[in-house]
Amino acid sequence: MRVLGMISGTSHDGIDTAIVDFGADGDRLHGRIVHTGSHPYPTGLRSRLAAALPPAETTLSEVCELDTLIGQTFASAAAEAILASGDVDLIVSHGQTVYHWVEGGHAHGTLQIGQPAWIAERTGAPVLSDVRIRDITAGGHGAPLVSYMDTLLLAGVDGVPAALNLGGIANISIPRGAGDVTAYDIGPANALIDAAVVRHGGHPAGFDEDGRIAASGTVDEALLAVLLADAYYRLPAPKSTGKEHFHIGYVDQAVATAGSQIGFADLVATLTELTIRTVADDVRAAGVTKLLVSGGGAHNPVIMDGLRSALTGTEVASSDTLGAPADDKEAIAFALIGWCTAHGLPGSNPAGTGARSARILGTLTPGAGPLTLPTPLTRAPRSLVLEPGK
């Protein structure tokens, strides 16, 4: 079964795509990655999206228009991937998260926009969307959903392995054996760094390329202490967070509390150190011996070198070593969720999200023809092997 997974993450810079050809062999699932790509948002659309995100106020008319425009952009990304690599049996669209409602330590709702009917109309393929909410209705956080794939990928890896994703938010999955996993959002990875860069115009694309800005600055210890004092870091797992909490206004308040007169480069250096410190503290506390990193932060040498320096007893490597390209891992994870749903299998790990039990995820939009699903499977895979396509 060929499944196209698509996601725009908390950095909202564009849409990652991955087509995976899945085949089950007993307890093992094989995934041949036949396409990966990235489809940037048009500059105007990205600006409109950023302007509508919390803590900014917006209108229902703007949400409606963004839902359409983002859905059309996802449709273009899907058509582009299919043109490059051939037809698919199913498309999974994560869409764009615009709000993740967490209150009192519990997730109560989540909103992803990017109308899937535009994708189905453009491609003729059925589309699975709205994949997080079912886990939340079962008492979970709806995140990190990638922990399901992480558990399968890390099966059989020696020691205490963990998968770390450094997107806008840092999340980690630490398998504990027999399908058990500890998984949660650690805190900001690139979210605050990107917010500062956008505010100060430090890079046209809105991020610290190769960590150059951070490398030119000095960490402000007083500001770092204020940032580290956030109560979120001491909440027990499972837990989730997002840009509703970690945004530029949050940075401004922290700077004011610290009483810092801080320059741009020093601010970026301090926010980068916050990511390093919070991730390293949790990895060390969990006794992780091998850390496999994905996401945009995996390309930031200041973050990666900082993690290696702080984690001398831990091997820090790219998720590529397990066949999951660092830039495409989340798109592959949503393709896997689609395969699970199509075969009547849960695509979440309740030990990682906090749900009462696993759920079959998503809402299906039919394509050009009748909606026909494979014969349901009675047993879920216990491991996943990914390999590049030929």
From TrEMBL:
<dbReference type="Pfam" id="PF03702">
    <property type="entry name" value="AnmK"/>
</dbReference>
<comment type="similarity">
    <text>Belongs to the anhydro-N-acetylmuramic acid kinase family.</text>
</comment>
<dbReference type="InterPro" id="IPR005338">
    <property type="entry name" value="Anhydro_N_Ac-Mur_kinase"/>
</dbReference>
<dbReference type="GO" id="GO:0016773">
    <property type="term" value="F:phosphotransferase activity, alcohol group as acceptor"/>
</dbReference>
<keyword id="KW-0418">Kinase</keyword>
<dbReference type="GO" id="GO:0097175">
    <property type="term" value="P:1,6-anhydro-N-acetyl-beta-muramic acid catabolic process"/>
</dbReference>
<dbReference type="GO" id="GO:0009254">
    <property type="term" value="P:peptidoglycan turnover"/>
</dbReference>
<keyword id="KW-0119">Carbohydrate metabolism</keyword>
<dbReference type="GO" id="GO:0005524">
    <property type="term" value="F:ATP binding"/>
</dbReference>
<keyword id="KW-0067">ATP-binding</keyword>
<keyword id="KW-0808">Transferase</keyword>
<keyword id="KW-0547">Nucleotide-binding</keyword>
<comment type="pathway">
    <text>Amino-sugar metabolism; 1,6-anhydro-N-acetylmuramate degradation.</text>
</comment>
<comment type="function">
    <text>Catalyzes the specific phosphorylation of 1,6-anhydro-N-acetylmuramic acid (anhMurNAc) with the simultaneous cleavage of the 1,6-anhydro ring, generating MurNAc-6-P. Is required for the utilization of anhMurNAc either imported from the medium or derived from its own cell wall murein, and thus plays a role in cell wall recycling.</text>
</comment>
<dbReference type="InterPro" id="IPR043129">
    <property type="entry name" value="ATPase_NBD"/>
</dbReference>
<dbReference type="GO" id="GO:0016301">
    <property type="term" value="F:kinase activity"/>
</dbReference>
<protein>
    <recommendedName>
        <fullName>Anhydro-N-acetylmuramic acid kinase</fullName>
        <ecNumber>2.7.1.170</ecNumber>
    </recommendedName>
</protein>
<comment type="pathway">
    <text>Cell wall biogenesis; peptidoglycan recycling.</text>
</comment>
<feature type="binding site">
    <location>
        <begin position="9"/>
        <end position="16"/>
    </location>
    <ligand>
        <name>ATP</name>
    </ligand>
</feature>
<dbReference type="GO" id="GO:0006040">
    <property type="term" value="P:amino sugar metabolic process"/>
</dbReference>
